[in-house]
Design a protein that fits this description.
mainly alpha; 5 strands; disordered C terminus; 2 domains
Length: about 210
C-alpha cells in the first residue's frame, strides 16, 4: 500500500474525522508538540497527522517508519499529550516498535508506567541519537564500526565452530560471538575516555537502547 493511501487508512476500529474547525484545533495541539520537537533542534521529517474518533481502543497509533500517526480525539486534550506524541514519533519516524521495559515505548504498559514529560524527552533524545542518521551518536557508531571491521580483517581468525581468535592473544583465546568480539575490541583497543557507556553497550542486533 502506498504512503498516500496509508496515511488515511485507520486501524484499531478508528474512523477518520473530516477536517473542520474542531478537528483542526485538535490537530493543531499535536502539531504544536511536533513544532516543539523541531524547535529543540531535532531534525525530524514531516509527519502526516490525522485525528480519528473515540471509538478506537488506542490513544494513538503510527505506521512504523512511514512518518504517519493517527491520534484519538479523546486523548488530544490530555495533560500527557507530549508523551503520547513523542511515543508515536519514535514509532513513525525511527521505525521502533514496542520496547519492553522502556517507560516511553513499552506500549502495553504506557499508562501504567506514567512516564513524566521530562523523562519522555530524555528517552526520546536517546532514540533520536541512535536511530536518526544525522545524529552525532549514529555517526560515531558508524565510525567505530569501520574501525572494528578494519581491525577484524587484519587481526581476527574465525574458527570452524564459529568462535573467534585474535592475534593479540596469539590465537589462543576463544570469543563466542561477534557481539562479544566487538566488546573485546572496545575494551582492549580503545581507552575509557574514548568510548561512552552507550557505545560500549550498543548491540546492533537489538532495535533498542539498553540501560
Amino acid at each position: 500500500m502506498s504512503k498516500k493511501s496509508l496515511k488515511n487508512k485507520t486501524a484499531y476500529g478508528g474512523k477518520m474525522l473530516k477536517m473542520d474547525d474542531n478537528v483542526y484545533a485538535l490537530r493543531r495541539k499535536v502539531m504544536d508538540v511536533l513544532y516543539d520537537i523541531k524547535s529543540r533542534g531535532y531534525n525530524i521529517p514531516r509527519i502526516e497527522v490525522r485525528i480519528v474518533d473515540g471509538n478506537t481502543d488506542a490513544c494513538a497509533y503510527a505506521y512504523l517508519g512511514q512518518n504517519i500517526a493517527h491520534f484519538n480525539k479523546k486523548y488530544v486534550g490530555y495533560k500527557n499529550l507530549t508523551q503520547i506524541v513523542l511515543h508515536e514519533v519514535v514509532h513513525a519516524t525511527f521505525g521502533v516498535g514496542e520496547v519492553i521495559g522502556c517507560k516511553l515505548m513499552h506500549c502495553s504498559k504506557f499508562w501504567e508506567n506514567k512516564v513524566s514529560e521530562s523523562e519522555s524527552w530524555k528517552l526520546f533524545d536517546m532514540y533520536y541519537q541512535e536511530f536518526c542518521p544525522d545524529s552525532s551518536f549514529r555517526s560515531r557508531l558508524d565510525e567505530l564500526e569501520k574501525e572494528f571491521q578494519e581491525w577484524m580483517d587484519e587481526n581476527v581468525y574465525e574458527n570452524v565452530d564459529g568462535s573467534f581468535s585474535t592475534q593479540d592473544a596469539q590465537w589462543g583465546n576463544r570469543i563466542e560471538t561477534k557481539i562479544d568480539l566487538k566488546k573485546y575490541f572496545l575494551r582492549e583497543f580503545r581507552s575509557e575516555d574514548e568510548i561512552s557507556d552507550r557505545e560500549k553497550n550498543y548491540n546492533p542486533n537489538e532495535k533498542y537502547i539498553r540501560g
